[in-house]
TrEMBL record, chains A, B:
This is Homoserine dehydrogenase. SUPFAM superfamilies: ACT-like, Glyceraldehyde-3-phosphate dehydrogenase-like, C-terminal domain, NAD(P)-binding Rossmann-fold domains. Belongs to the homoserine dehydrogenase family. It comes from Thalassobacter stenotrophicus. PANTHER family: HOMOSERINE DEHYDROGENASE (PTHR43331:SF1).
Amino acid sequence: MRKDTLRLGVVGLGTVGTGTVKIVQNHAAMLSARTGTSIEITAVSARSRSKDRGIDISAYAWEDDPVALAKRDDVDVLVELMGGTDGPAKAATEAALSLGKSVVTANKALLAVHGQALAELAEANGAQIRFEAAVAGGIPVVKALTEGLAANAMTRVLGVMNGTCNYILTRMESAGLPYDTVFQEANDLGYLEADPNLDVGGIDAGHKLALLASIAFGTQVDFDAVALEGIGAITIEDISRAADMGYKIKLLGLAQMTDAGLQQSMRPCLVPASSPLGQLEGGTNMVVLEGDAVGQIVMRGAGAGEGPTASAVMADVCDLARGIDLPVFGQPAASLAKAAPAVSATPCPYYLRLTLRDEPGALAQVATTLGNSGISIDRMRQYDHSDADTAPVLIVTHACAPNDLDRAVSALTQIATVVGAPVALQIQNV
Amino acid sequence: MRKDTLRLGVVGLGTVGTGTVKIVQNHAAMLSARTGTSIEITAVSARSRSKDRGIDISAYAWEDDPVALAKRDDVDVLVELMGGTDGPAKAATEAALSLGKSVVTANKALLAVHGQALAELAEANGAQIRFEAAVAGGIPVVKALTEGLAANAMTRVLGVMNGTCNYILTRMESAGLPYDTVFQEANDLGYLEADPNLDVGGIDAGHKLALLASIAFGTQVDFDAVALEGIGAITIEDISRAADMGYKIKLLGLAQMTDAGLQQSMRPCLVPASSPLGQLEGGTNMVVLEGDAVGQIVMRGAGAGEGPTASAVMADVCDLARGIDLPVFGQPAASLAKAAPAVSATPCPYYLRLTLRDEPGALAQVATTLGNSGISIDRMRQYDHSDADTAPVLIVTHACAPNDLDRAVSALTQIATVVGAPVALQIQNV
């Protein structure tokens, strides 16, 4: 049902909240023309009432308590921009939904962990939860997947969904700087979350992947089943060796439904340097959606920031103003399957980097060990090592089962001429 | 309003129609789970009833006359996949809309020419026209623009929206073949429309651009105002000279609202080789959407073909099944402004290729002529010409007004040492 007026209560006035207020204030006529509804903010809540945010909030009612705001009679829709898996964000969301009020949120953590329960609560009360802003910032990927590709059985969802990690990896390559230095740079630039592990540990991006996987495959969101690996162990040597073989290293999310169950991972992978993902520089996000009818759709844009994220928040608000009514994850929560996590992952090629002691037969021993584990070698390079008694060796395997590869890596570690632990990274040919 | 069952009448059973029937037949359960509605085909119409299309249409009522099909009591939604600016496609569309039945169409020509009148007819009868399949095949760009970026004042829309032209241009470059040869290849491969000028003349892509411009800027669709220029005059020499300067030549659509009015063009332009548009190879489409809040969103995917286009058709059908109700061009037809076409286009840099007779002072004369026309030179290269008495000269200008550039080109043509007409192409830094 379209209403003449849609009254928003905004909790959280950080970057995204401020951007959202700006759009409502600056584009009132445009929003009204497009939605047929007057979109207004009636109440706000944040940690500080007096902080200068460059916006005038004096016309809005103030609430210290987000839950009280959610319950206000003059709030039709809760816009939750506080963040956090639990605490006030969850309490305010539940309060709004319980009263049949829809919630627009940028909170990936909340939905990745409590998504199923909240979707059930929403649908039981005739309310919606909209979360375009929670995944890949300004890119309208939730809408593309839920609506634009609704006629596809999705085959894969992939993406670079954490701009900070992509900034770090591409900056390491372009400036030839080690991880620690670029990490510090990113921190100084304010690119990192208060808990940096949310970024570099892949958690934030893993949250986003879990949300997209739920929509793509009609399954209950299951963040715990996302295989997570951060970028902290990526060295400048791996980046340049990968480039040498025609690849880039990205923190890559991958979700696919296989005969072995639902596979979800967020880990550093190699992708072809010439692919759209390989060419993605800096803090930009990219999501790749693959469906049985449409083939491959690639979407690229700013994954964070005031304007882009507020654009996504307000797109959801416009949908509500236009009377668009959709289940939270694209189909009724009760119909979402509890997917079994994949017991074995889909075979893929691997990048292996080893350090070999310079002894006769060392390379042969490595090749034999891989062969015995059923791993077949596509390309192998031993690099110049005139200044050392160890040689860097690079191997690109043919597609092999990750379990087999893990076993092979264990076996390699037992070889006396192999120095230290081999580095093994998946190659995803997107 | 969601209905329990949505009954489709499909007119046109070519590639896209066949793909649409396949999705309805193969994905009934998935579509029902996602939309809460049973989506069925009740009637079909095409030129031949007996042609083998690899699908079973025996369960559907047959109509020889598309208009009769549109009027059937058991048809809720007309799916128009015949094409054509007028004739039966228009008649069937009008018949359906007049009865308050929504129309899903892939027909860019019909909407680019009659879009405003049809939108008014639809809205007067409480019906919708949905045309995701009409623009950029499987890429959900109409949805992204209308809904996903609804909170943005759009600044520019750009794109490569004709896969055949992009195939021809990239194939010319990769194989080093002249236009005529690759044109013939494309024709033999069945890539070209029956009237090839629709493709290589930029008309088909111009139709698509006009539709996106209407949504982006809230204006009445105005195909006649699109400045059209095809790719027929592009030579292999221009492609390689452009590459030499770091550019690719693309048939590029550009729509932007300026102080001088609405600017719409579909013409061969140079784009940076390293940009997403520059990297686009083969028959793939790419649309770039720029908004004041979101910045730049890039979408890439198959622009044609059975699966991708049927995916877009069925996405619109799913929207209707889900009860989503939107004005045809994103806001009520009556509120769409009649935009004045731009009297002068926005300044941009230009690529100029001249052939100069090898005489003292020839180059200086060119530079002077440009300077006198207010055109400032960014880069200039004179190429080796030991085997000829003429020299190829390449110039990249700083941004200049297209009118000034046109005047400068006229002046250059008057110079005795300039052989033939200079080639002038816009450079768009996307």
